[in-house]
Amino acid sequence: NAGVTQTPKFRVLKTGQSMTLLCAQDMNHEYMYWYRQDPGMGLRLIHYSVGEGTTAKGEVPDGYNVSRLKKQNFLLGLESAAPSQTSVYFCASSYYRGQETQYFGPGTRLLVL
Amino acid sequence: SQQGEEDPQALSIQEGENATMNCSYKTSINNLQWYRQNSGRGLVHLILIRSNEREKHSGRLRVTLDTSKKSSSLLITASRAADTASYFCASSSGNTGKLIFGQGTTLQVKP
């Protein structure tokens, strides 16, 4: 039981490049979330999904897209990376009904030059 | 910003002392949660307190919730060097499970 895993762990991009961050969970959780964490700040929600095939915007969605084609995977895409997207990205999942605890992945550190 | 606020931002204590962190939030909640983050790692859930609860204990952790003041506190008793980490409160409202995080308290426990 690996829990929540994230790929890659670290990436350097040039401005304008694109990339996809992958989040996978093996706990059969319905709900999945993408957050970003910047120095001195808590986590801010980018997008989330309440089930396979569904996605919704969070607090800071601009510049990101997501897809949830399979229940166990939640992808975060950056179509044209900007230096302001330099951050640490965390994925989380939860089985909402009756258990609101979120389980977090180890994070992806992204540097956009 | 929807973010909650935590204070203090940083706290440094000696091993064996108690550590108290405070959190304020902005909207009505279903529950409030506390998470811990070790340097360079993901967040780990510590404890959850529901809106109809006032106090909850888990081991050396004690959480209180005052919904009239929209505030919560986390007390870690008899702290250990291994408790050194950042601690975040997160409020949950609505039916999507979304969490609104505070900005965190960085705790350093000196041996």
Written overview of the protein:
Chain A is mainly β. Chain A has a single domain (4-112), classed as Immunoglobulin-like (Sandwich). Helices cover 0% and strands 50% of the residues of chain A. Chain A has no helices and 11 strands. Chain A has strands at residues 4-7, 10-13, 19-25, 31-37, 43-49, 56-57, 64-67, 73-78, 87-94, 103-104, 108-112. In chain A, the strands form 2 sheets. In chain A, strands 2, 4, 5, 6, 9, 10 and 11 form a 7-stranded mixed beta sheet that branches. Chain A has a 4-stranded antiparallel beta sheet with strand order 1-3-8-7, with no helix packed on it. In chain A, a hairpin with a 5-residue loop joins β4 (31-37) and β5. Chain A starts with a strand and ends with a strand. Chain B is an all-beta fold and 111 residues long. Chain B has one domain (5-110): Immunoglobulin-like, CATH 2.60.40. Helices cover 0% and strands 56% of the residues of chain B. Chain B contains no helices and 11 strands. In chain B, the strands form 2 sheets. In chain B, strands 2, 4, 5, 9, 10 and 11 form a 6-stranded mixed beta sheet that branches. In chain B, strands 1-3-8-7-6 form a 5-stranded antiparallel beta sheet, with no helix packed on it. Chain B is globular, with a radius of gyration of 13 Å. Chain B starts with a strand and ends with a strand. The model of chain B has no long low-confidence stretch (mean pLDDT 93). Chain A binds chain B through residues 4, 31, 33, 35, 40-45, 48, 50, 56, 58-59, 90, 92, 94, 96, 100-107, and chain B through 2-4, 6, 9, 30-31, 33, 35, 40-45, 48, 88, 90, 92, 95-104.
Say what the CATH topology of chain B is: Immunoglobulin-like
Gap between N and C termini of chain A, in Å? 36 Å
The biggest beta sheet of chain B, please?
6 strands, mixed
Tell me the fraction of residues in β-strands of chain B, as a range: over 45%
CATH architectural type of chain A: Sandwich
Could you give the order of the helices and strands of chain A?
EEEEEEEEEEE
Q: Most extensive interface: pair and counts?
A: A-B, 27 and 29 residues
Question: What are the secondary-structure elements of chain B, in order, as H or E?
Answer: EEEEEEEEEEE
Q: For this structure, what is the CATH class of chain B? A: Mainly Beta
The first-level CATH class of chain A is given as: Mainly Beta
Number of domains of chain B: 1
Helix content of chain A: under 10%
